[in-house]
Design a protein that fits this description.
It is built from two helices and two strands; from the N terminus they run E-E-H-H. The protein has 66 residues and is an alpha+beta fold. The longest helix is centred in the last third of the chain and has 20 residues. 5% of the residues are buried.
Amino acid sequence: MKLKEYYYQWDPYREEIIMTTEKLKELVKEYKEKYKEAKTDDERERAIWHLNSYQTELMMRDEKII
């Protein structure tokens, strides 16, 4: 059995645990797919909320959004 990749890291400048940029990019892709495949308004709203949150975090890190 393979161990899950470690997605969080300690940020000494903000003194908190943050999600890695790679994981954020993966989540953006995942929620874009969930949004496309959503069958109800509730599923779409949940997917777009998560998508906006993760994209905002990437923008704050000056990363290119896919």
